Backbone:
């Protein structure tokens, strides 16, 4: 018989998990790029990888404290955004998409290659960089919480920090998009030439937007690796596609869309894979093995991306007037 | 693919040791080697362990690089002072274990069995893999010969990329769609061939022909089921591109659902290389290049000389004008999808022989290179895609002369970014296309 309690509690755990927070923040970065500015950045995985590796390498190889490691990661992503933006921001959207994917793949391949194995750990990745972050934990050791949300001090500390960062980033994005800067950014999305005609330096604004969203992605990359290890294969192009799925689900030009989108995405995904896995165990799906059941979720994500874009391009929270999809 | 095509000679009959430029290539390839000084890796993490003992004349050899690859897993380890090594592996699968001969002391080579061994687990969780070392010198191929060999390989790779890239470029030209699901059209050709030849036992050439036809049908089906309705609905180009990403993801995992995550071989792959001076090519490679060139010529003829081909180029240039001149735009797009599907399928079959192996994500592995090729040549220009593909193919293969082979795609992608910096519209593109 199927253990519904376990399925539901596993799904509920995803609601506040650090992974959900990390994807929400990465999607918020994409919302700045794609939703507000209209930049089709398909290299968010590259920014996340820079955050993860920037933090882990500065902690492990150089022994930096937490704040310095975070700054190194952010610095790396600003540099990456500049390198990426200078040749590409003048290009048309589909060129930009291809170039950003290529750049993210270059980053991933450089982290995967054996050439830099002593620093990057090559295909095995890195671990053992969490000490500094755990030492900052003010929560006394012990287990807290109720029901499925029962964690030890480190896990709570991680969740509190992760979601605080997400909330701060949301507030910041909300304010900045209401400011004159934000209006210019949205103007660029609607009609770049009109904004240029008003005497604004479109190129500089796009670059600032690329850096801001990239920094969000980088911090998301750091949050993403705090509950796990840094593994280069996590930063494949599919990661960017997943973040896009979350963004489109919530609504591209919204603040809460990415956050709620990420929660819905992970809760549903966990529920779905938990259900399928147990249904296979219970013999409800005799034609399927448990490995195959694990792949169904990716098919589901793919189909979901298609359906959302076709039938509800503004997402759950979006406003149909504010669509990044200008023809 | 390693940098040094080592030919082992036990009687130093033809010991050619050309230094100079070759040394640079060697240094690069060994850069990653001396790094990890641990004789055990991942043995705590995984249940299954490959282990071995590297000895020569009863003396252990230290610091020999052993690498394991297989089932999507890779690891490497350096032998300790006793010549021992252990590598943990995640599954009870077949792994290929390679000994890097560059890390052996001078005068010692792998005597028999080769420097790469396929290790299969028996009943136990530990499998010992040993290499038989002997005395001898390795005669290495000169830089020029390596260059020529890589060049020919690159040309072969570029030609098979071109098949896929031209299809993608035609589709982009006529519909404006940057089709990420092209990767799955590539994979489809190879998977269809695998099913027809290995599972159903058809002769390989029949299987290939049917697979190409099926790929054409697949292209037609995708257009009829997904893209045509969306065009009719008036969905914008960027949403269409995102739909193609979703479609690509879904199809890829559907393939994995049915074919599993492993790699299978098509009949005839792994044929012995024939030597033409410095160039080593298998009969399959020659067939592959011959077929690519013939098909590309046929496509060129189709585009330049036939009515439908001319109509295709007209639609590419200006769909409304083409439509107003009485060209059946929908019909042209349908034909482009069929041709694009068939070309992608053929390219997948050739890619399966080039890699070698058929796997569920093989198309996705070269998708970016295909995109790089079309973008380099100029989006939407069929002949630009051909030029771009050859450049990308040559770059990928030639860069292994200097870069470690796991970075060989980086070169091609960097070239893509640099070309766009200098000539954003691509090599054969027109300036107005960048908008």
Residues:
């Amino acid at each position: 018989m199927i253990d519904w309690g376990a399925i539901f509690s596993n799904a509920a755990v995803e609601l506040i998990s650090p992974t959900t927070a990390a994807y929400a923040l990465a999607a918020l970065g994409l919302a700045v790029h794609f939703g507000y500015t209209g930049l089709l950045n398909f290299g968010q995985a590259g920014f996340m990888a820079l955050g993860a590796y920037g933090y882990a390498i500065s902690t492990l190889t150089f022994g930096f404290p937490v704040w310095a490691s975070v700054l190194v990661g952010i610095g790396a992503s600003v540099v990456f955004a500049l390198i990426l933006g200078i040749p590409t921001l003048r290009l048309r959207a589909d060129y930009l998409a291809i170039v950003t994917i290529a750049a993210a793949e270059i980053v991933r391949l450089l982290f995967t290659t054996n050439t830099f194995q002593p620093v990057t750990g090559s295909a095995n990745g890195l671990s053992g960089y969490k000490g500094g972050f755990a030492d900052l934990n003010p929560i006394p050791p012990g287990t807290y919480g109720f029901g499925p949300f029962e964690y030890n001090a480190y896990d709570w500390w991680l969740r509190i920090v992760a979601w605080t960062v997400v909330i701060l980033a949301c507030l910041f994005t909300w304010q900045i998009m209401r400011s004159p800067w934000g209006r210019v950014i949205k103007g660029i999305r609607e009609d770049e030439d009109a904004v240029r005609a008003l005497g604004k330096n479109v190129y500089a604004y796009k670059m600032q937007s690329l850096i801001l969203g990239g920094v969000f992605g980088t911090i998301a990359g750091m949050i993403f690796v705090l509950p796990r290890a840094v593994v280069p294969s996590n930063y494949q192009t599919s990661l960017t596609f997943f973040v896009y799925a979350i963004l489109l689900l919530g609504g591209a030009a919204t603040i809460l869309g990415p956050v709620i989108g990420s929660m819905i995405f992970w809760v549903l995904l966990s529920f779905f894979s938990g259900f399928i896995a147990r249904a296979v165990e219970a013999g409800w799906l005799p034609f399927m093995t448990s490995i195959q059941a694990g792949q169904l979720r990716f098919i589901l994500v793919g189909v979901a991306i298609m359906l959302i874009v076709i039938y509800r391009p503004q997402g759950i929270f979006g406003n149909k007037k504010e669509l990044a999809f200008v023809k | 693919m390693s940098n040094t095509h080592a030919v082992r000679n036990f009687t130093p009959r033809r010991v050619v040791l050309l230094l100079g430029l070759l040394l640079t290539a060697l240094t690069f390839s060994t850069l990653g080697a001396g790094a990890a000084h641990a004789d055990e890796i991942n043995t705590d993490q995984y249940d299954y362990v490959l282990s071995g003992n590297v000895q020569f004349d009863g003396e252990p050899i230290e610091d020999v690089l052993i690498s394991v690859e297989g089932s999507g897993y890779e690891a490497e380890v350096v032998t300790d002072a006793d010549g021992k090594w252990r590598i943990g592996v995640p599954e009870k699968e077949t792994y290929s274990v390679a000994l890097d001969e560059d890390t052996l002391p001078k005068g010692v080579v792998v005597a028999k069995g080769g420097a790469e061994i396929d290790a299969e687990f028996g009943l136990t969780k530990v499998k010992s893999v040993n290499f038989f070392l002997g005395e001898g010198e390795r005669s290495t191929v000169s830089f020029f010969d390596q260059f020529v060999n890589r060049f020919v390989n690159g040309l072969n790779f570029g030609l098979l990329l071109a098949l896929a890239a031209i299809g993608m470029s035609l589709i982009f030209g006529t519909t404006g769609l940057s089709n990420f699901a092209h990767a799955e059209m590539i994979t489809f050709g190879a998977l269809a061939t695998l099913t027809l030849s290995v599972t159903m036992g058809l002769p390989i050439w029949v299987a290939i022909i049917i697979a190409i036809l099926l790929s054409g049908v697949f292209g037609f089906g995708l257009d009829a089921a997904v893209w045509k309705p969306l065009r009719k609905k008036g969905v914008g180009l960027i949403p269409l591109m995102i739909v193609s990403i979703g479609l690509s993801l879904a199809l890829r995992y559907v393939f994995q659902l049915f074919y599993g995550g492993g790699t299978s071989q098509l009949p005839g792959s792994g044929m012995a290389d024939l030597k033409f001076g410095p160039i080593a090519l298998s009969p399959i490679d020659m067939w592959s290049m011959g077929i690519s060139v013939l098909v590309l010529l046929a496509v060129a003829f189709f585009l330049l000389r036939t009515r439908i081909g001319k109509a295709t180029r007209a639609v590419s240039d200006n769909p409304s004008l083409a439509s107003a001149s009485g060209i059946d735009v929908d019909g042209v797009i349908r034909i482009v999808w069929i041709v694009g599907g068939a070309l992608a399928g053929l390219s997948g079959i050739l890619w399966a022989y080039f890699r070698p192996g058929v796997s569920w994500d093989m198309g996705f592995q070269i998708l970016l290179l295909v995109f790089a090729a079309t973008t380099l040549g100029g989006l939407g220009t069929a002949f630009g895609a051909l030029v771009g593909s050859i450049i990308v193919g040559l770059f990928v293969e030639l860069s292994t002369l200097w870069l470690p082979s796991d970075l060989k795609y980086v070169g091609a992608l960097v070239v893509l970014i640099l070309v766009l910096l200098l000539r954003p519209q691509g090599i054969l593109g027109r300036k107005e296309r960048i908008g």
Residues 18-234 of chain A form one domain. Chain A touches chain B through 55 residues (CB under 8 Å). The two ends of chain A are 51 Å apart (CA to CA). Residues 44 and 240 of chain A are 6 Å apart (CA to CA).
